[in-house]
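Next up, sample data:
>
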Amino acid sequence: MVGVPARAPRRPSVRALVLATHAPPAVAVTLVATLLAVTAQVSPGRVALVGMAVLAGQASIGWSNDWLDADRDRAVARADKPVVQGAVDPAVLRSAALASAAVAVVLSLVLGWVPGLLLLALVASGWAYNAGLKRTAASGLPYVTGFGALPAGVVAAAPGVPAAPWWLPAAGAALGAAAHLANVAPDIADDLATGVRGLPHRLGARRSAVVGAVLLGAASLVLVLGPAGPPAWWGWAGLVLAVPAVAVAALAGTARFRRLAFPAVLLLTVLDVVLLLAGGAALT
């Protein structure tokens, strides 16, 4: 295989370990889950447990990804990966991934069986994706199930173990599927070079962009129209922003409009997260 040979590190740095967690998405998912717990009026102590459990689970997913993909990342010279840089050994990431997964299990189940198992569905989905589903046409399934279960688990952590209304996990599932399509887009060429053919690879860049934009728009609709009663003014305002953003985001697969499409995708994602948090507040 052609690539950057790994140097044998003596001791991994904290920076290398943090980078290998895929820190930006891990922190983003943790922050959204924690804020949703706050808006759903989960008690402060349990909010902290939710945040720590989700963060541990996200770290385990990131570490397992870089551990399991070490050879593939070296083959395509992924110089942004700590393993390829020689900053951390795959064996260290394996140990860290297993340890953080165990921590996630304990912290999640402390919240109770129902919220715990729902939160752990995201962890199990991430590991299943890393272990092989990413190479199949079902690569989006872990994102749909995991991010659909996450808001349901957070809501269930509130007093009385309430069940989340259908529109929260539905919107979470749509956001997860859209995130999968957007996350894979920059790495399609490298993935294909190493035999990875998930759903976005089979759809291609243009169709993936259109499907992702439609999913983000659908999440907006569900979050605004799903709750009982007429939507608030800010819900209608969100939809007014969402409609043109969906149209522009659908052009992300074309070279000519890619620069405009990225801000549109970002706008839709932020809008949906705000609507999700507002939905959590509406439960109380």
Notes: Confidence is low (pLDDT under 50) at residues 1-9. The chain has two domains: 14-162, 165-283. The chain has 14 helices and no strands. The radius of gyration is 19 Å.
